[in-house]
Amino acid sequence: MQTQTTNEAIEFNGWTLRARPTDAKNPRLLLMIHGLTGDENSMWVFTRRFPADYWIIAPRAPFPAKPQGFSWRENPLSVEEALNEQSNRPNLDALRESVEALIRLTDEYAASVKVEAQTFDAIGFSQGAAMVSVLSMLYPQRVRKAGILAGFAPRGLEPCADAQPLKGKRLFVAHGSQDEMIPIERARDSMRLFERAGASLVYCEDAVGHKLSANCLNSLERYLAD
Fold first, then answer.
1. Model pLDDT, residue 104
2. How many CA atoms lie within 13 A of 4 on its CB side?
3. What are the backbone dihedrals phi and psi of residue 129, each rounded to the nearest 5 degrees, phi first?
4. 64, 81, 91, 142: least surrounded by Cβ within 10 Å?
5. Contact 63, 70 (CB under 8 A)
């Protein structure tokens, strides 16, 4: 185990991750979850825009992806296969193991650096957004704020929604209307599920592809600053 003193990548309890410490008196923990073929560096460019009182961690997913990078599900499709596969949206069971592992990582890392993380914030991109959807629905008592960026809610969460686990929570959702990887209608289906689960939504849509637009990044920054 290695504790963190800089924002360089480290090894911690079998994970590779990047972290941005803070000197804030009462730091908040922010978990950043990358997408398919990404790694701990993929979303790091966003950190300079986020509030200074965040202690940020960005872990590398545990499974190798094709043809490179990492995935939150075992035996993932390649990006090309996913584009050609009608039912490429992973189900809840495919991501549950990684979600539970992230909860353990968050608790162990927070304890090692003495940061309070009984509740934490989480943002994810694409497959990472699916992970944040599962985290929020299965562990609503742990996730304070959630950002779903160019992503979707996995199949299998529908029964969870009926118990309204997200009641009283505000979720941030951003999507590109020209996204060919995850079509906009899939994001809209996911938003209907979140609302069924009791959430209120902060939604940003722009005429971009599979990425976060500058306008939506500004909206996400405001959402996290509240």
1. 98
2. 30
3. -70, -35
4. 81
5. yes
Give the pair of three-digit tokens for residue 17.
Answer: 């991750």
Helix and strand numbers (H, E) in the chain are 6, 10
Nearest-angstrom CA–CA distance, 58 and 124: 10
Is residue 2 within 8 A of residue 13, CB to CB? The reply is: no
Radius of gyration, alpha carbons of the chain: 16
Q: What are phi and psi of 187, to 5 degrees?
A: -65, -40
The tokens describing 216, both together, are 């939506």
Identify which of 142, 198, 189, 139 has the alpha carbon closest to the alpha carbon of residue 171.
198
- pLDDT tens-place string over residues 158-174: 999 999 999 999 999 99
Q: How many CA atoms lie within 13 A of 138 on its CB side?
A: 20
CA torsion, ordered 76, 82, 87, 90, to nearest 10 deg: 30
pLDDT for 139-158, tens place per residue? 999 999 999 999 999 999 99
Tell me the angle at which helices 127-138 and 92-113 cross, rounded to the nearest 10 degrees.
80
Enumerate domains of the chain plus CATH numbers: 9-225 (3.40.50.1820)
Q: Do 65 and 78 meet the contact criterion of CB atoms below 8 Å apart?
A: yes
pTM of the model: 0.93
Q: What is the dihedral of CA 13, 138, 200, 124, to 10 degrees?
A: 30
Tokens read off for 169: 């929570």
Q: What tokens does 156 get?
A: 């299998």
